[in-house]
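Handout, section 3.2

Students often ask what a structure token actually looks like in practice. Rather than define it abstractly, here is a full record for WbqC-like protein family protein. The first block is the sequence as you would receive it.
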Amino acid sequence: MRVAIHQPDYIPYLGYFYKISKADLFVYLDEAQFSNDNMHHRNVIKTPQGRKRLTIPLDYHFKDAINEVRTKDELGWKEEHLTLLAANYSKTKYYKEIYPLIRELLLTKYENLADMNMTINHFILSGFGLRTAIVKASELKVDSKKEKRILDICTLLKANEYYSGLGAKSYQSEEDFANRGIMLTYTDYKVFDYPQQWGGFEENMSILDFLFNCGFDWNRVLEGVRKDEQL
């Protein structure tokens, strides 16, 4: 069984969903420590002026887990993000289909940042027709840290393959995985062009950029990755 693992990020980029699609079982690291440097609470969209960051204001303490972080909804950030999406995507092909669904999801009340991100991501996965099984790390009760936590989760889930993002190459050891009987492989996702507004292609936008421009067209994603591999 191929397992992939990642923190629950906010409206993440296409590669995040591609990684999930390639796994038999995906684990949300919802109990990982929140990091202000990662994409747990922010992402980027495309505007006529270029990239625009959307950031969620948070109530948290140092070393809080992502599932312990509260979003400061009282500051009106949800309405602000929705206004920015409407202003920058209202003329896209799939805006009328996608926007009301995202609006309903975003305006829902959530217990914490992790729950919100996972709910939105699950909706997007369903829209694409992706059916990868998903569990939360908080349900697995694995207390180890860093690479050992990944190894322990894979062992607990009886994985024979771990499907990793490329960013982990610098600290993961194939030997450590092999010693557990687990093959370590890395994502083959490649950035590809798709229709966007306003000039040249901006890569690694939030998934919402793809949805507004292309809809829930997973075949376009698969074809885009394969086309890049052939170049």
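Discussion prompt for tutorial groups: The mean pLDDT is 95. How would you have guessed this from the sequence alone?
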